[in-house]
Specification:
single chain; two-stranded antiparallel sheet; 12 helices; Inosine-uridine Nucleoside N-ribohydrolase, Chain A; alpha/beta
C-alpha cells in the first residue's frame, strides 16, 4: 500500500508513523508536515526525529503549510508540551528536510503514480490536503482514499464542546476535503476514545525494548497525563494511529457511510463535524465514519509492529 502521511507530530502522530514504518505492507512514499499541535518548524523536525528513532532516515519529509487557509494558527502545547514530543530525550535529526513544498510533493506524487494506488493519511489539520486539491483538482480522481483522524459525533469535541482539534484548527480546509469527491474514511473521537493507553498496554510497548518503543513509551507517559486529568481515566486516547491500523486491519473497526458537513461560520460550533449518522437528511454520503474498534486488537497490532523497527 502506497501512503503519504500528512502530520503535525504530536506523540500520537509519532505512534502512527511508527506503526506505518513497522508494517511491511505499507510503502511510505513521504511524510508531509503541517502546522497544528505545534508550529511548522517543530512539526517538520519532529517528523524527521521520529523517522530516525525508527531507523528510517531514508524517508522523505517535506514541510508544508505554516498556518490554516484563512485563520490564525491554534496550537496544543498544553497537551503535547512545548516541543510537541515532550517525554523522551530529543535530538537534532541527522538527515535534512527535502527541498520543495509538501503540497507540491503531494500533487506530483499523485499525478505520477498510477491512479487509485496512493492513499493519503492526514492526522493533523487538513491544510496541506486542501491546498493540494485546490492547486490541482485532477488529483481527486487519482487518490485511492483519504484516511483521516478528525472530528467527532457522539463524542463531540476535545478542544471545544463541539469540535475536535484537527478540524477546529482549519475548518475551511476540512470542508474542502470532505467535499472533494475522493473516498474519505473518518476516524473520529468516537473511535479514538476507545483506544486508551492503559498502564498494562504501555508496559507491553515498553517490553518491546527497541529505540522506537522506548521513545514511544516515554512519549505516552507524558502525553497521557493531560487526558487522565481531564477524563479521570487509566491512560488517554491514542488518536492518530487508528488511521494506519485501519489500512492494515479494517476488520478491527465498524462504522457506516454518512454525510459529513463541516461548520465554518458559527463562533459557537466552529469546526464541528455534522455527521448524519441516522440518515435524516437527503445529503449524499461522502465519508465512511467509523464508530467502534477492537481496542485490544489495535494495541496488539501496534505492539507487534513496533518490534519490527530498528
Amino acid at each position: 500500500m502506497k501512503v503519504i502521511i500528512d502530520t503535525d507530530p504530536g506523540q500520537d502522530d509519532a505512534a502512527a508513523i511508527m506503526l506505518a514504518l513497522g508494517s511491511p505492507e505499507i510503502d511510505v512514499l513521504g511524510i508531509t508536515a503541517v502546522a497544528g499541535n505545534v508550529p511548522l518548524a517543530l512539526t517538520e523536525r519532529n517528523a524527521r526525529m521520529v523517522c530516525e528513532m525508527c531507523g528510517r532516515t531514508d524517508i522523505k519529509v517535506y514541510a508544508g503549510a505554516d498556518k490554516p487557509l484563512s485563520r490564525p494558527l491554534v496550537t496544543a502545547e498544553h497537551v503535547h508540551g512545548k516541543t510537541g514530543l515532550d517525554g523522551p530525550e530529543l535530538f537534532e535529526p541527522s538527515f535534512p528536510l527535502q527541498p520543495g513544498h509538501a503540497v507540491d510533493f503531494i500533487v506530483q506524487t499523485l499525478m505520477n503514480e498510477a491512479p487509485g494506488t496512493v492513499s493519503l493519511c492526514p492526522i493533523g489539520p487538513l491544510t496541506n490536503i486542501a491546498l493540494a486539491l485546490q492547486k490541482e483538482p485532477a488529483i481527486t480522481g487519482r487518490i485511492q482514499q483519504i484516511v483521516l483522524m478528525g472530528g467527532g459525533y457522539f463524542a463531540q469535541g476535545n478542544i471545544t464542546p463541539a469540535a475536535e482539534f484537527n478540524i477546529f484548527v482549519d475548518p475551511e480546509a476540512a470542508a474542502v476535503v470532505f467535499a472533494c469527491g475522493a473516498p474519505v474514511i473518518m476516524m473520529p473521537l468516537d473511535v479514538t476514545h476507545k483506544v486508551m493507553t492503559t498502564k498494562s498496554r504501555v508496559e507491553k510497548i515498553r517490553a518491546v525494548d527497541n529505540r522506537a518503543a522506548r521513545a514511544l513509551t516515554e512519549m505516552l507517559l507524558f502525553y497521557e497525563r493531560f487526558d487522565e486529568a481531564k477524563y479521570g481515566t487509566d491512560g488517554g486516547p491514542l488518536h492518530d494511529p487508528t488511521t494506519i491500523a485501519w489500512l492494515l486491519k479494517p476488520d478491527l473497526f465498524a462504522g457506516r457511510e454518512c454525510n459529513v458537513e463541516i461548520e465554518t461560520t458559527s463562533k459557537l460550533t466552529r469546526g464541528a463535524t455534522v455527521v448524519d449518522w441516522w440518515g435524516v437528511t437527503k445529503r449524499g454520503k461522502n465519508a465512511l465514519v467509523l464508530g467502534d474498534v477492537n481496542a485490544d486488537g489495535f494495541f496488539d497490532l501496534l505492539t507487534e509492529r513496533l518490534a519490527n523497527l530498528g
